[in-house]
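Re: that chain you flagged

S.,

Sorry for the slow reply, it's been a week of failed gels. I finally had a moment to sit down with the sequence you sent. For the record, here it is as I used it:
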Amino acid sequence: MASARLALARAGARSGVLAGVAAVVLVLAGVGTAIIDQAAGAGVTGLRDRVGAAAGAEGAVRWEIRRSSDPEAQTAAGAAVLDRTLPADSIEWGRTVESAPVPPSGEDAPAAGLVLLTDPDAAARAHLVDGAWPETAGDGSASAPIPTAVHAGAAAALGLAVGDTIELADRSLELVGTWLPDDARAPAWFGSPLVATGSADGAAGPFLVDERALDGLPVAVRVRWTATPIVDALTPDSARELTSAIARTTPALAAEPGIGEDGLSQLGGLPATIDAAITGLDAVRAITPLPLLLLAAAGIAALGRLGTLLAGARRGETVLLRARGAATRQLVGWQAGEAAAVGAPAAILGAAAGELALLLLRPGEPRSLWIAAAVAAASVLVAVVLLAASAWGEARRPVTRSTGEDSGRGTRAAALGGTILVAVAAAVSLWQFRLYGSPLVRTADGGTAVDPLAVLAPVLVLLALALGALACTPFVSRLLERIASARPGLVPSLPLRQLARRAPMFAAASFTAMLGVAGIVLTATVAGSWQRFDADAAALATGGEVRVVGAADPAAAEAAAEALPAVVVEPVVRREIRVGPETATLVATGLDLLPQVAPGLPADIASAIRAIDAADADLLPVAIDEKLAASTSAGPGDRISLRLGSADGTIDARVAAVVQAVPGAGEIGVLADRAELDAAVTEAGARAPSPDELWIGAADPAAVVAAFDRDRPGGAVALARDAASTASLVSPAITALWLGAIGALAAALAALIALAAALGASRRGEVLVLRALGAPAAMQGRARFAELAASVGTAIVLGAAIGAIAAWATSAELARAAVPGAPAALAPALAVEWWPLAAALGAFALATAAVALVSARAVTRDAGRPGREEVR
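Prediction finished late last night. Pasting the structure tokens below so you have them in one place:
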């Protein structure tokens, strides 16, 4: 009982430092839970959002073959293979049968061919405009008309109404209803222009009929199995398994005897869409460890320093207790128990707060209580181990120490050795990081993995530089002390002398402050560099702010685009060409309007436009990208030949500029002015190429995309730059990085509060002595404020410099790793998110100033009233 009372009394005497320990554990548990659980949930959500946003054929996979003479056996064979090879919990499939355009008969027959479609699930993805869905194939007689429901757009184009009859060569169709798709971009419709508009390429429809109506048609009839993912069931692991299953399905269908042998083909971009999303998630792994490492480093450093501070403040009582027979095990147990007692409630509260914040800020994402429990337990364990270790080290000190131990040379030697080891580890990790150009490395199976050494580089660089700066602070403090001692008065001589004499105590706050500030500077640079690089890569991938592709009727799409408010529309020629031995993509548009329809392109594109405008008119002036320039050894002023195809001939061109990448071209590209291209092609005696797509500059790109999604003019699909951005996948990782950096600052603030409390408890006698010597109370308060302000202010300046160095060494590579689809020639530039950085540093500076001010006022209050020692 006496032992328990003594332990409680010891804890109460150092409540300020123990409160700091609890605060650090709270930060570790809360922020750590938020980072890890958000990373897990955001990965699933990002994958589902990315796959769910894929439209048409990009979000589905289809197997297609000619309809067999035994359709029932073919249907059973296909179902058996698909059920066996495709995982039913992550993908679903449906069978449709579609005819080639069937020419109508009769004197007044329309010119368009009629496309007949059997789709048992059509009613679930479409709605009736008029009439009813067809239910039977007629009354069974050869002359009876076949009930059908037709696309409302096709009915309007053909002049049909419910009740009309359409004659074919050997059968007739009775129109019983008209319908429209609920969402023509839905993957199950596979991006069919016919479904979007009702007519495409001289055909009209689809006419929904019973499958028996397709028997004996004089045109080709194709069977299609279309598979779409169950988006809400996808996880990164199930998505990887799904792409493997899709790859196995095609050979399994081809090997099935009942399927048929007439040209089975696999279509659709679902595997590529999933691979792109998985690649994006893999890229996120280059950033995800950073916030955890930064938070862990700051938390461990803060707890370690607080343990040292607590052990140092108890040095006298530890010697006394040992002299009275206290065992080392008992002293260590007391301090470990203190850590557990204050850490466990703080960890539970922190983990609960982290989960609650995620529940409010990111609803709908999967959460894991096991993650919260594990993080809370790890936070408490770290606190217990570090405080127990500091108590053990202090308890193992000899009661009578040698001169060398009193001077602290052994401790300084150990600290110097640790700093050197961390510096060596940082150098090796940074070398590995720069060697790979990323924390990600290629695996033997073609995937990516996080290199365990390279991923540590940013944080190890921060730690090494912070430890180096900390090792130099005693020398700087002594130098400043000598300078200040030459001036009259106790301030600034007294504060600087205290900093020099009590360097180990102030190191607790200085080191964590340097690490936190350095982490926030690194975070701001990584976030800014990624945003700029992602914007450049998205602009190069799509070209225009909105890109319109796949129009069966380009004129209708262009007219619809020009009718939208506040837009600039420019037709673009985009086609494959040959340049020497290379296959490249030619992009030709009105270069005078390019900055308006495609704002935000890299600066070298604007320079290339000026160079093309200034070029001589003897040959077609073009800009080529760096990869094409390297493979063809062509540079500005050189002559190259562009082979546009057999119908368009060969065009001689002159390189006006070399750019990192050509917008909208992909891997290798050539940029030209469309009017000049038309003139050059016409002069060569060939036909001018028609525009393939539209680029649109808009005040509200999302509204333009929504309008095209709603109306599908000409069957076109509109794509915004957001579709090419990695923001949906990477933003949660950047948010986690901010959380880790802010958590590191919070740990530094907790260490500063504990330092101020420890100084107030251990230096009460000094306050009374200075008062007895005539030092005014206000002056003593100013001196304490100056001590803390000088210590933390220096740490902030050094931390900003350390963060800038680490950012310069690693931010560009991290930005590139987070945008895996960016052109290899596109170089990321360093950029900083200034407003969040200024807000975080400003808030930290104000908080530290408040702590110093409260500490100074406590000193002023204590120095202004008599103490017991003076009364005695």
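What I noticed first: The chain is about 55% helix and 15% strand.

Talk soon,
D.
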